[in-house]
Amino acid sequence: MAALDAQSAELEVREGVDRETIETVNAMAGKYKYGWETEIETEYAPKGLSEDIVRLISEKNGEPQWMLDWRLAAYERWLKMEEPRWAMLNYPEIDYQDQYYYAKPKSMDVKPKSLDEVDPKLLATYAKLGIPLKEQALLAGVEAPEGERRVAVDAVFDSVSVGTTFKAELAKAGVIFCSISEAVREHPELVQKYLGSVVPQSDNFFATLNSAVFSDGSFVYIPPGTKCPMELSTYFRINAENTGQFERTLIIADKGAYVSYLEGCTAPKRDTNQLHAAVVEIVILEDAEVKYSTVQNWYPGDENGKGGIYNFVTKRADCRGDRAKVMWTQVETGSAITWKYPSCILRGNDSQGEFYSIAIANNAQQADTGTKMIHLGKRTKSRIVSKGISAGRAQNTYRGLVSMHPKATDSRNYTQCDSLLIGDKCGAHTVPYIEVKNNSSRVEHEATTSKVDDDQLFYCRSRGMDEEEAVALVVNGFCREVLQALPMEFAMEAQSLVAISLEGSVG
Amino acid sequence: MALPQAKQDALAARIAGLDLPQGGWLGAARSEALARLTAMGLPTKRDEYWRYTDPTLLTAPGACAAVFDDSDEPPVFDAIDRLKLVFTDGVFDAAASDNPALAGIEIERLALAGSADIHWAQGLYGVLETRGQNPVPRPLAALNSAFATDGILIRVTGKVAKPVSLIYRHKSDASDAILHHCIKLEAGAELTLLENGPAAARFLKVLEVEVGDGARFHHIRAQGRDHERLAATHIFARLGAEALFKSFTLTANGRMTRNDCVLELVGDDAKAHVAGAAMGDRSFHHDDTVFVTHAAERCESRQVFKKVLKNGAVGVFQGKILVKPGAQKTDGYQISQSLLLDDDSQFLAKPELEIYADDVKCSHGSTSGAIDETALYYLRSRGVPLKQAQSLLVLAFLAEAIAEIEDEAIADDIRGRLEGWLHRHES
């Protein structure tokens, strides 16, 4: 134990140096901060996708028969489906046989019983990413200043969960927070009841693919009347080459529960595109509330559009009970391709859905993202604030649906989509669908597109800022409403990310 | 790529009874249009821009009979001094029309002008329609270009003294009319075009307008009154530098109306305004699909669409502002609003922006809801009876669209129609 501590301390120091060097190099390249790779022995499943691979993933996770059957049914469906091409995204055909669907660090072969047994290389990777996986250090206040909020982390590395912190303490409050593979084994009744109940197996091409091959992800259950004692988070890291990541997250907030959940993700720089197709399902019962915040910072590819992650994600929250509440906040700065529409099904009466989004596309990035607000219950409310920023040769699309069903009387929606263009080679698009089927509900939609205001830039420059700083400041102001909706730690990170993502976009 | 068999069959059934006249410049244009149509097939509910409007009735082999109620109201534009051109069940009616000789304008009938070898309309007929097929196919317009039975070709060289008025009458309750008009405004010319009347039980129309540099085109139409007709209309317009295009449409009832408007601003400093006021009661389905392309600098476009719906009426708005690379200093505005007077009515909207230039100002807004209770309460507290207060608020709601009509006399006439409609549909 003591030895381990010493080792991590040493790692810290060495790493400080590393980090600085890396940052200098990156500053010179002007780009992605998390593009390094962890050299670790990795075990792959054979390349390509087949029924055998689905069986293998299930076996690796030690799953019961029902889970395997579920996966196989999804795989059957997937074979008959066609990849959707309606989004304003332009990318070459994806060869689904030319990648690995399962990769895990060799050292994870024997499941570590606790974080102490986890390969230090893996721990170091997360430390380097700024995600401490050491509870004791945090508790002792060594790394975290006094009074800082604690965050429990589930760390997912390629296809497997490396470890989950604060499990014991959370268990005391009745909260279950673990990897989904563990939940399948330990809490089958919950998983069976809720898995696929928000995003069915056959929901869409990518969700169906995920249903067949998801390898890991996080599982959260908050019991009735419980306010989760700390924030929960999952950090996804793709490390292995030519490997797709397919994680599945399932969050259940029982009656009157509350949880705030954070998600972060990064990947190394590589010349080839990598596939990421995740599914997040959230079930919210009566009076419960879930806040889900994402900072998506997958490798976006280089200035010429070489490499980068293809991010096809299905996220949906189902407000099943009356007065249930959900809030999606996303900062999308990474990925070569983003295809993502976190949605809210407002089924319970008086339920509420909110969606705050900043999507930044620079260089050759393409983002097609937005939300769906499906109003089914009476007096349901939703609010959408979307800020899209395009620079370089990027294309950024907001695509959303607001639907008021005939029975969703006295409901309310307000949507605001603003786009900002930096440079004359990029594009910003808005594609909202508005369907109102009763007259007591009010729906309002507003959208604007403009460029960075010259007067504001001039003002900043006259105060001695250089052009990039000035643009970053103006853009941060443009995003303010969304940044304010983020939990504090994330807001800081997001703010600096906004600046970093726009580097090189001016002049 | 060959069309699926079902689509081929549907198309064959639709065009089986239609005539494709050969010869002359028009014959060639028709053949090309048929080729376009054959490549596309007819629209179906699965098409992205038909998701809110089921085109089945518009694409069926024959038209359903429609009942036309004549109200005591004098026809719209009656008091306006104008040059009348009358079509009865889709055929030009020379006896009912005025003598088309007027200074600064040439008017010809499509059915007669088509047999010549060379004609100015060659550069327009089916040409703007073809340009409007990309990126969204409009098969009904191609069908029209191929099979139009009649229409008017107008070339304007100066400022025309009075409006040209196209009046569509009907005699038969099951008429199926296909009309195609072309209007060319030479540089600096000016024309006001009025259109009204139910035309036919099913009416398929295309209007192609070329607005030359500095020319001004005003278009005001009143679509039907209380009857059950089906209509699919298309406007394709191209605007030169400093050109002005203004179009306003009033739709009061009608079983199904689909109005496509495809505008392309190719000259710098052009202005295009399209507006619509629609009022529907009971089985009323009204769809405005507007596509504005900015391909030049410093152009302005406005789309203002208002719908008042009751008793299960459905209003659809699909609008797009496309700003092409290099179309800097574009000012694009789009608003679509609906007032749902009861719980059965529906409003379905897809207001889109697609922007590839950075120095632009584009915005759109869309709202839907009931009459503002506070405003209603205020009026009632001032002694205004309920019905009257409601009418007042409905008219106020529609005012922004009517404001797009420049001619005050015509705007007053339109306002009178709205009041008449509200009065007839009070319950």
Automatic annotation (TrEMBL), chain A:
Q: Domain (SUF system FeS cluster assembly SufBD N-terminal): give its ranges.
A: 170-228
Q: The organism sits in which domain of life?
A: Bacteria
- Domain SUF system FeS cluster assembly SufBD core stretches: 236-478
Q: Name one GO biological process term.
A: iron-sulfur cluster assembly
Please list every transmembrane segment annotated in the UniProt record, as residue ranges. none
| The family this protein is said to belong to | Belongs to the iron-sulfur cluster assembly SufBD family.
| Name used for this protein in its record | Fe-S cluster assembly protein SufB
From TrEMBL, chain B:
Superkingdom of this protein's organism: Bacteria
Task: Output the InterPro entries linked to this UniProt entry.
Answer: Fe-S_cluster_assembly_SufBD, SUF_FeS_clus_asmbl_SufBD_core, SUF_FeS_clus_asmbl_SufBD_sf, SUF_FeS_clus_asmbl_SufD
Domain SUF system FeS cluster assembly SufBD core spans what residues?
A: 173-397
Please name the GO terms of the biological process aspect recorded for this protein, alphabetically: iron-sulfur cluster assembly
Extent of the signal sequence: none
UniProt-listed NCBIfam families? sufD
* UniProt name for this protein: Fe-S cluster assembly protein SufD
Q: Which organism is it from?
A: Fuscibacter oryzae
